C-alpha cells in the first residue's frame, strides 16, 4: 500500500489518538493502516510501510486480534498470514465498546459489588463512604444495563437515534 501524505497524516494522528485512549502507538498505527488498506497485508509489508520492527508488528497484531479488530486471512499462492481490519465503522465501534466493557467495566462491577458486600460487616469505614461506593455501584450498573439494551438496537435505528441528537429528549418524559 502506498503511503501518501494524506495516508501518513491519518496513520500518525490515529497513533496519537491511540495513546490518548490508552492504546500503544504502534498498535493504533497498524490498525489505521489495515483499516485504510484495500487488501489484507502481510506482517512484513506492515513493518516496512510503517518503519516498525517486525517483532513489534507481530506483538501489535496479536493485541489487535485479541481486541477482535484485526483478523488473519490467507491469500492464494502466498503461505504468509495476511491481516485485515474490520471496515464497517459501526461494527468496529461496537467491538471496541464490547471489549472495553469486558476488560474495564465488568471487573469494576465485580469489585464494587464485593465492596458493598464487605461494607455490611465493616465497622471502620464511615457510612458516608459506604454510601458513595453503593452509589457508584448503582451508577455503573445503570450504565451497564443501558449498554445491554443499546447493543440489541439494530444498526439503522442506532444511526437514526444518533442523528436525532438532543431532539430525542423531547420524546422522553421526565
Number of helices: 7
**H/E topology pattern:** HHEHHEEHHH
- The level of helicity is 55-70%
Q: Which whole number gives the mean pLDDT? A: 94
Using only C-alpha atoms, the radius of gyration works out to 21 Å
User: From the helix content, strand content and strand pairing, which structural class follows?
Assistant: mainly alpha
Structural account:
With 174 residues, the protein is mainly α. The chain folds into 2 domains: 81 residues, Winged helix-like DNA-binding domain superfamily/Winged helix DNA-binding domain (Arc Repressor Mutant, subunit A), CATH 1.10.10.10; 83 residues, no CATH class. 66% of the residues lie in helices and 9% in strands. The chain has 7 helices and 3 strands. A 3-stranded antiparallel beta sheet has the order 1-3-2. A hairpin with a 2-residue loop joins strand 2 and strand 3. Helix 2 packs across helix 4, helix 3 packs across helix 4 and helix 5 packs antiparallel against helix 6. The protein is extended. 13% of the residues are buried. The mean pLDDT is 94.
Q: How would you briefly describe this protein structure?
A:
With about 170 residues, the protein is mainly alpha-helical. It is built from seven helices and three strands, in the order ααβααββααα. β2 (about 70-75) and β3 (about 80-85) form a beta hairpin.
Amino acid at each position: 500500500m502506498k503511503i501518501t501524505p494524506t495516508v501518513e497524516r491519518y496513520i500518525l494522528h490515529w497513533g496519537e489518538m491511540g495513546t490518548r485512549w490508552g492504546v500503544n502507538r504502534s498498535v493504533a498505527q497498524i490498525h489505521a493502516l489495515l483499516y485504510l488498506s484495500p487488501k489484507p497485508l502481510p506482517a512484513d509489508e506492515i513493518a516496512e510501510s510503517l518503519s516498525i520492527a517486525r517483532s513489534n508488528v507481530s506483538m501489535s497484531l496479536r493485541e489487535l486480534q485479541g481486541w477482535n479488530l484485526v483478523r488473519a486471512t490467507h491469500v492464494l499462492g502466498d503461505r504468509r498470514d495476511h491481516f485485515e481490519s474490520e471496515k464497517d465503522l459501526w461494527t468496529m465501534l461496537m467491538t471496541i465498546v464490547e471489549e472495553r466493557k469486558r476488560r474495564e467495566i465488568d471487573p469494576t462491577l465485580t469489585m464494587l459489588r464485593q465492596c458493598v458486600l464487605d461494607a455490611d460487616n465493616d465497622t471502620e469505614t464511615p457510612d458516608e463512604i459506604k454510601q458513595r461506593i453503593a452509589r457508584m455501584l448503582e451508577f455503573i450498573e445503570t450504565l451497564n444495563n443501558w449498554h445491554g439494551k443499546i447493543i440489541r438496537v439494530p444498526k439503522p435505528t442506532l444511526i437514526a437515534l444518533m442523528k436525532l441528537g438532543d431532539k430525542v429528549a423531547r420524546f422522553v418524559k421526565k
